Automatic annotation (TrEMBL):
One of the Pfam families matching this protein, by short name: DUF6427
Keyword presence, Transmembrane helix: yes
GO MF term set: monooxygenase activity
Transmembrane intervals: 12-31, 56-75, 95-123, 143-167, 179-199, 228-246, 258-276, 282-300, 307-325
Organism: Pedobacter polaris
Keyword annotations of the record: Membrane, Monooxygenase, Oxidoreductase, Transmembrane, Transmembrane helix
Keyword Transferase in record: no
Superkingdom of origin: Bacteria
Descriptive protein name: Beta-carotene 15,15'-monooxygenase
Length: 326
């Protein structure tokens, strides 16, 4: 399977589509009793009325989620190839993206983080470009606006604002205009939302939008470790990828080194942003799939022993299927 996706054969697109359905067989066979899809945060619903909560049947919800994941995988794969993050252009990034987006049952349904991954992939592309442009001010402004749009859909997306400065630290020398451009882009969107609230004599509700930012990071989490055993093979691959990356780090292009550092910070920020959503669900961690999938793909792109990496991938897929069914 891995060897097949190590090249850009167009046949892989057909296999990838079949693989997307295969990874979702468990939820199609055992359909949930009810699925609710909320496209926007409550504060954004006052601005844009999109009655989607009960517009999809359960089957339509699951099928649309599969199509969205497949499309995101193709876009994501193209960005990874364009920026030369792997040993050579391939479909490995798309394969590992779909695999990562199938880890848990809640990943398989239509959810705000799934929609936000379109924006996250777009942001990732823009961050990877800022080191190649003479002036990143407009790019940072655009990224700030994209993060604001993502925040309207799913509030924890706001934490990605930290990536504005982390990426600038990695890629560019200090320029105060670039450092504030992203924030101005973000505030531009919310300025219009504040005006809307003000016109409707509801400005106090606008202030409440920001309350989750002062939530205390939870000191203890109630975790049923049996539900997360599927992450064991993922963890093994990440460790192997990290060792592989460390071995090749100083032999890689500077742009590649910075790219993986940026993706590492994005991965961590996407995970810890759950604290801004007191009632967060497992599907929140879909936001960590794009940066995480690059690291997984990096290992399989550079692995040498075919019997080992093919077996490791097979164990990963089988473990996902097992935990989805049980």
């Amino acid at each position: 399977m891995i060897n097949q996706f190590r090249n850009l054969n167009p046949v892989n697109l057909v296999i990838l589509a079949a693989y997307t359905i295969f990874m979702r067989l468990a939820i199609f066979i055992n359909l949930p009793d009810q699925l609710n899809f909320e496209f926007l945060e409550p504060y954004a619903k006052l601005l844009v009325q999109i009655p989607l909560e009960n517009s999809f049947s359960i089957t339509a919800n699951l099928f649309l989620a599969a199509v969205i994941t497949f499309v995101q995988a193709i876009l994501f794969n193209r960005i990874v190839n364009n920026h030369g993050l792997l040993a050579k252009p391939s479909y490995l990034s798309a394969l590992l993206y779909i695999t990562g987006a199938s880890l848990f049952t809640q990943f398989l349904i239509l959810s705000p983080p799934l929609i936000c991954n379109f924006l996250l992939i777009w942001i990732m592309d823009k961050f990877l470009k800022i080191g190649k442009t003479p002036n990143a001010m407009m790019t940072m402004f655009d990224i700030g606006m994209i993060i604001a749009l993502g925040t309207l859909i799913y509030f924890p997306f706001i934490v990605l604002l930290a990536m504005l400065w982390l990426s600038l630290l990695l890629y560019r020398s200090f320029s105060w205009r670039e450092w504030i451009a992203g924030i101005i882009g973000f505030l531009t969107i919310f300025f219009f939302i504040a005006v809307f609230y003000y016109w409707n004599d509801n400005i106090t509700q606008f202030y409440r939008i920001w309350r989750p930012l002062v939530n205390k990071f939870p000191s203890n989490l109630k975790i049923n470790f049996n539900d997360y055993l599927v992450l064991m093979p993922v963890s093994v691959i990440i460790i192997l990828a990290t060792l592989q990356l460390r071995e090749n780090f100083f032999r890689s292009f500077i742009s590649t080194r910075k790219a993986f550092q940026m993706l590492f910070f994005m991965f961590i920020i996407a995970i810890i942003s759950f604290y801004t959503k007191p009632d967060f669900r497992v599907y929140h961690f879909l936001l960590s799939v794009p940066p995480g999938a690059v690291l997984l793909a990096y290992y399989f792109s550079n692995a040498k022993k075919r019997w080992f990496y093919e077996s490791l991938f097979a164990v990963l897929v089988l473990s996902i299927q097992y935990f989805l069914f049980v």
